[in-house]
Structure formats: C-alpha cells, structure tokens
Specification:
This protein is of the alpha+beta class. The chain has eleven helices and four strands; from the N terminus they run αααααααααββααββ.
Length: about 325
C-alpha cells in the first residue's frame, strides 16, 4: 500500500469514493489488476520515489502518473511492513494463483484421493495468502502456523469427504438434485474451511489486538482486541462472498452444458476452466469491496481506554483507523 511510504503529507486514499460500495469495487479492481504482476523492480522503485515526493511536498497535485504509482504500491506493498508481498500471494495474483486449484476442486466425479489432494492444496494456498497479507502487529510463530494449518486442512477434508459420502445416500431427493448437491460439495468445504482458516491463522491478532491509528494524524494510539475482531471477522465474510460465486456458478452452468452437449473430458476441463476464470475476475473486486481495507471506526466501538484519548493538540480523538488485512 502507498500508505507505507513515510512522509508528513497523506496521499488521497483512492481516486474513487471509498465511502461507497461501488467506489470500493472499482478501487479493488485496481488493486487486483493482474497486469500489476508485470511491474519490474525498477518501476516499483520509481513509483515509491514519486509517491515519496508527493508525501514530502515536492509534488503538490495528484497527476495520472502519480495515481498509477499509487496503484502499483497498493497492489504490491504490504501496508504494515512497507515490503513487497511475495508475488504469488498478492491480490493482483489471487485469481491466477487460485485458478488451477479451483479447477481441480470442481472437477466432477473425483474419488477420495483427488478430493483430499485438492482440498489440502487449496488450504495450503489459503494459509500462504492469509499469512502474506495479514496484519503484522503480531506475527505468528512457526508452531502456531503449523498448528493452524493442520486444523484448517482437517476441517476442509472432513467436510468434503463427509458430504461426498452423505449426498449419494439422500434417496429422498431426485437423481438430478443429488447431482447438483454433489457438484456443490467443494463450495461447502471451501467456505467452512476458509472461515476456520482465517480465524486460526489470525487468531493471535484477536488474542493480543492490532495497532490502531488516529484517523487524523495517522499516529499509533494503542492496540485493540475489538479492532482485531472486526478486522478478522470482516475478512472471513469477504472470503465467503468471494468463494460463493466462483464455487457455485461454474458447476451449475457446467451441469446444464453437459445435458445439452456431449462433452469429451478435455472439452469439459477447458470449459470448466473458462467458466471459473471469468467468474473469478468478475467476483473478486465485488468481494474485496464489501469492507474497506483501512477501516475507520468511532472510538466508542473499541475498548474504554480509547474513549478519552487526546491528540498532541489536546483535542479528543473521536475516530481511529486500522488495517483490516485481506
């Protein structure tokens, strides 16, 4: 994020209105733009320099080039550390990184081994993305990471295998209904395990709290467990919203196409891939836009010790911000 670049002057948060959902959707489309993966180290340093010049008063007005530089930093730099997020785990790579895994999970008629393999692969990727993009106020230890990963994999595989075993036994349902429910098993597994994954991987934030900032000056005013609960909870909801269209729409469309057309396995795979890719690119900005990345809340929604805080000028601090993570 461009906010990680030091300087006494703040950049505008976005060229779009982030107080509105549609503005956040357009901003999220910028952040998740896969073209940002092609940015070289030289371009990144140039973007940092240009943003630094603005924040230190050397450039007075926002220009198209400055907006582009901000977009590069927002899609590349972690807001807490100021360092680039590892390329496959950036939001600009989210769709492409998840594409193969999603196609694997949504492949019809997989056996137990295939189900286990793709669920484990998916949770491994989720853990990596969660860790790379989480709030860095309280990083997890290796042991905590390993424990959280094992529990998330267990939850995912248990739901997937359990439902795969249950659906064929629902004899009261028609064959068509059982077919559709069977195709939606990966969705149930991904959503349930995804929520567990977020809370496990970021549980340390809830236990210890995350840094909150004066919304006017940007200075750290303390650590809040309630802010952490907001941040992690909203991230979990966002993950559910993002997974829902990607894991529901393609398999339902594929069922309809298979009834109308006789598909060979290669054609089925390519069709599945195309449906997932198109749905993913459309759905991601809408999911990311549900909640702001930099969350602003009234101090009365946090612990009581924040209610009477004052800034350097002696004025009461009424609003604070925190990084929600993604």
């Amino acid at each position: 994020m461009a906010s990680a670049i030091p300087g006494p002057r703040d950049l505008p948060e976005s060229r779009y209105d982030l107080s509105s959902y549609w503005g956040r959707v357009k901003h999220s489309a910028d952040v998740s733009d896969p073209r940002m993966l092609l940015i070289t180290k030289k371009k990144l340093e140039e973007a940092k320099a240009l943003v630094s010049d603005y924040k230190n008063g050397k450039i007075m007005d926002m220009t198209p080039q400055l907006w582009t530089s901000k977009k590069i930093l927002d899609s590349t730099i972690h807001p807490d550390t100021g360092e680039p997020v590892f390329l496959p785990f950036r939001m600009s790579s989210y769709v492409l990184s998840n594409l193969v895994v999603t196609v694997g999970m949504l492949t019809p008629n997989m056996g137990a081994f295939g189900t286990l393999f793709w669920q484990i692969t998916n949770q491994s990727l989720n853990v990596a993305i969660n860790t790379a993009n989480s709030n860095k106020s309280h990083p997890l230890t290796t042991q905590q990471l390993a424990t959280s990963y094992a529990m998330a994999v267990t939850a995912s595989c248990s739901v997937a295998l359990g439902l795969n075993s249950l659906v064929p036994r629902l004899k009261s349902l028609s064959a068509n209904s059982r077919l559709i429910l069977g195709r939606l098993v990966p969705f149930a597994a991904v959503v349930s395990a995804g929520v567990v994954n977020v809370f496990l991987m970021r549980g340390e934030e809830i236990r210890k709290g995350i840094s909150v900032f004066d919304s006017d000056s940007g200075e750290v005013v303390g650590t809040s467990k309630k802010a952490a609960t907001f941040a992690v909870g909203e991230t979990a909801i966002s993950r559910v919203l993002n997974a829902s269209p990607i894991m529901v729409i393609p398999p339902l469309i594929l069922v309809r196409l298979q009834r109308k057309f006789k598909m060979t396995k290669p054609i089925e795979t390519v069709t599945n891939l195309g449906l997932i890719l198109a749905t993913s690119f459309v759905a991601l900005p809408f999911a990311l836009g549900v909640f702001p990345q930099r969350r602003t809340v009234d101090v009365t929604r946090l612990e009581k010790r924040f209610w009477s805080l004052k800034n350097k000028e002696g004025k009461p601090i009424t609003k604070v911000q925190f990084n929600r993570g993604i």
